[in-house]
Known about the structure:
Blueprint: E1 6-9, E2 17-23, E3 39-45, E4 48-54, E5 59-64, E6 69-72, E7 76-82, E8 88-94
Antiparallel strand pairs: 1-2, 2-8, 3-6, 3-8, 4-5, 4-7
Amino acid sequence: HQRAGEVRELGREGGAVRIAEYVGAHGVPDGWQSSRHDTVIYVVSGELSVTSAIHGGTETIHELHPGDRLLCGAGVSYRCDSGGATTVFVVIALDDRCPTPAI
């Protein structure tokens, strides 16, 4: 059982997919995050406010609840603000060491 404010890597070792579980207000990554690949944020419990911006442009706020997911496309910056210690969310993305897919 995890205590509030912890981060647990669920699928990175040697794999192409980076999966991290964040628990509680203190487990939320600080500041803006981004990836060269698509990123999915999935809320397991609690509430999560996610602010996203494309290339430093207009910011959009997304209010997520249990079962909600948000897809941040490649290069989209985002920052998370959890509502408190009961919030649990998962971030899933390709590892940035993977080659960028050809378009």
